[in-house]
Amino acid sequence: MGLAGTIASWFGAASRPPGEGEGAVPGEQKSIATVAGTLVFTGGGDGAFVERSYAALARGGFMQNPVAYRSVRLISEAAAAIPLVLHDGDSEVSGHRLLELLRRPNPMTDGAAFVEAICGHLLLSGNAYVEAALIDGEVRALHLLRPDRVRLIEGVDGWPEAYEYRAGASVRRIAAEGPGGEPSTILPLALFHPLADHRGFAPLGAAQNALDLHNAAARWNRALLENSARPSGALIYCNATDQMSLAGIFRDQAESRGKV
Q1: Number of domains the chain is built from
Q2: Nearest by Cα to 9 from 98, 92, 88, 96
Q3: What is the pTM of this model?
Q4: Could you tell me the residue range of the domain that residue 189 belongs to?
Q5: 151-173, pLDDT tens digit by residue?
Q6: How far apart, in whole angstroms, are the C-alpha atoms of residue 207 and residue 170?
Q7: Residue 212: inside a domain
């Protein structure tokens, strides 16, 4: 079920895919058996590509690289600045409880910060997980789950069966589908990943080589400045009697340049 369908079902609205009327043919039931495997891509001597974790990209990119940090912030803030509008057909709806919930998803987060966090998770992980808190069967709050704490559990057919959320010593298992075919209380959002079925690819992951070069250059320049801009190494000559001849060479070079 998509984003719009899940949210609509959370609030009791019947969601129907476009083109499905009263006499429409029911959708197909898909069952595809898959076999788990491992893919390793190697290049011609340049090492294998290793997809980095959310924590690695967050530390090496967002928390240590000013360019990556500002890029994530610009995209997140721009997305959060878009006003949310609810329509019922062609007419705009105001004062709906869905709008109130999105303006204040939970007591600790406002709507803008919530959208910024979703974008941050997507950019750094490729995945974002929104959990609905139900009271008496009604959605009262929305919470974000950190992507590195969520593990997708696949069924024997390869489709998501549950999500395992781990925080410290606490582990919760959230079904991917509610009882009676109802939507799950967790809404997974994922960016396109060419090599994974249910996991997203982080945009920052595509720039990890450039990120490494930028961070390495910054570390090199800092180390050079801490060493008074003196490059490492030493000029060594073995025979002390050659001091005068060495000084003569330097003097001759200076004279040839017109400095003496």
Answers
A1: 1
A2: 98
A3: 0.70
A4: 1-9+52-260
A5: 999 999 999 999 999 999 999 99
A6: 34
A7: yes
